[in-house]
Amino acid sequence: MSTFQGLSVALSSLQSQRRAMDVAGQNIANAATPGYTRQRADLVSQAGPVNPISNVRGWTTGNGVAVADITRLTDRLASSRVEITTADAALASTRSGVLDAVQAGFNEPGDTGLQHKLGQMWTAWSALGDQDPLGTGGAAARVTVAGRSEEVAATLREGAAQTAATWGDVRAELGTLETSVNSIATSVADYNRLITITETTGATAHELADQRDQLVRQLSQLVGATSRPRPDGGVDVLVGGEALVTGAVARQVAVAGPLAMGGAATGPTTVTFADTGATAAVGGAAAALTEALTTTIPGVMAGYDRVAQSVATRVNAAHGDPAVFTAAGGGPVTAANVTASIAPSDIRAGTGGRGVEVADAVAALAEDPTGPDGQWRTFVIGVAGAASAAEVRATATQTNSDAARGALVASTAVDVDSEMVDLLTYQRAYEGAARVLTTVDQMLDTLINRTGVVGR
């Protein structure tokens, strides 16, 4: 190795070790930064000069070291698993939240729940049968029957109103989700553009890639998005297999469907691609919200309607004319319009002005397994079972998501102890290169300033 080649070797080491120390320092500085992916300086040895005459290297040594690249130590498989499990956890959690909100509106068990109100109404009818229908006690009992009946109707109307309000809240949440998805998709496309431009110049854009990947995971949570790497350093983002983001171009989504609940027959709500109107096969929270708007909450409203119709049909059939329960404004009875506006004087305890067979027949509905009580219990138990199963599913999927995130962190996060060891290694190599440079300088000084002057 020539003296000047020695200078070149020492210089390459100084430059490379310094850059490697910079990378280690960046890792240590971001050890606690959420979403940061560890980086590594890839050092490669430099080949020595070729003999220009024989075209062989002969005894020449190498020409030092260089930083071939700064590698971002991402784990593509672990990242993909995080995207998938994040979408599953968001879907299960949102579904569980909707069912919890619906179940809370039942107020069961409790004094304000429909089960209690029905029990009070049956008791009032039974008390009417125990009174002298034509005496003073009978008149008071009729007032109680009318009042308890209206309380049942009011409870059904309140349940229907709460269900419609829950539907409206979910619809508003889906609208907010639409805005968030469009904003995040645009940001991902912007990051793709910046990353491509940066890497085209030969610089690294690893920090930009970290921030972009966090946004992609937000899209996974919202609409079940997955990502696919591009050769230019960007990613394509897919929703249900169709592109939401392609390189630096982002599409927009829109929510299609009714803006207000139309009873149990509410039309379907879907998330579509705004440019084509095609339905997007969304996952994540969006899938649970559209399911709630189209199936879950209308199903709950249908359950309320069935109970309201059962109350009206069974009580009216036992009582006869005039009807105890009717639909406000006319038409079929539903939970939203049921009312018991009958006058106390029109309530009959028996037929022909005497007897208590009517009151007893209505009171007996409390024990009928196919009557309103039985239908309400079956309905409430069904929703409670679905809510319980959804909660179990939410817990399981969240555990799975946490495990996936843990695996990703284990493979990509900064290990400060390891970085300190690397930093010490680079520091010692830097000191050694500096010593080589000093030694070569001394050799050159001897050759230039002392050769031929020995003994003078």
TrEMBL record:
Stored Pfam families: Flg_bb_rod (PF00460), Flg_bbr_C (PF06429), FlgK_D1 (PF22638)
Domain Flagellar basal-body/hook protein C-terminal: 411-449
Subcellular location: Bacterial flagellum; Secreted
Annotated GO MF terms: structural molecule activity
Residues spanning the signal sequence: none
Record-level GO BP terms: bacterial-type flagellum assembly
Keywords carried by this UniProt record: Bacterial flagellum, Cell projection, Cilium, Flagellum, Secreted
GO CC, any one term: extracellular region
Segments forming domain Flagellar hook-associated protein FlgK helical: 101-320
Segments forming domain Flagellar basal body rod protein N-terminal: 7-37
Family the UniProt entry places it in: Belongs to the flagella basal body rod proteins family.
Protein's name in the database: Flagellar hook-associated protein 1
Species of origin: Pseudokineococcus marinus
Gene label: flgK
